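TL;DR need structure tokens for one chain.
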Amino acid sequence: MGHTSDAVIALEEVTAAAFDMDGVLTDTASVHAAAWKRTFDDFLRTRQSSEGGRYVPFALREDYLDYVDGRSRLDGVRTFLASRGIVLPEEGTADASSLTVAALGDRKERYFLDCIRTYGVSAYPSTIALLKTLRQAGVRTAVVSASRNCALTVKAAGAAHLFDVRVDGRDAERLHLPGKPDPALFLEAARRMRTPPARTAVFEDSLAGVEAGARGGFGLVVGVDRAGQAAQLHARGADVVVSDLAELRAARRKEGEWTPGR
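>> reply
TL;DR here they are.
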């Protein structure tokens, strides 16, 4: 299945909406991918120099989408390393010579924050427009992200005021919530918005995030296809796939007619 055009969010059925951050709200997925590539390529070069073997760099598109996108930082490290048959200790210091899961995760976070401070963050205009429309219609909104830097990123994008609730990597750590594709983060957002999952829409661009929405029993799962993987998003459980949220309309049914949500 391809993209769904002119898709409607039925405001009688959807009373809350949970938006992923990277790739749905903010144009930061490419920044994350670049930070992951720098982290893993440095690690793989060091490992090849000390242990031999062939150096195969991190594939910016395939490896990012398959092993990292949508996952928590440490899960991303574990999943990518497992794809290369590498197992590292979990804990350790974050200096450049430490070859641990935690250290690689910390290194990636430093690279990401360096990029954010240098280049800033931009939000997708269509996402901002949809958020405003939903809020005007009385729909509660949440931003949901595995990132520990969610608050900083949303604030930098000028979008913090558009959300009633934020559930992020810091909450996941504090509450011991498993990462996507487990639906725990989205379920926590629905709980905080006091809305049942069946009346909550999820907006996600990652395969893991779409799967989380489907597994959580959410009433509408929208896949945002930024990477040419519409078929995979459908296969993981997306009800609707669009290339941009401008393709969606929020509307009410009145006397048999759809009218735009106000």
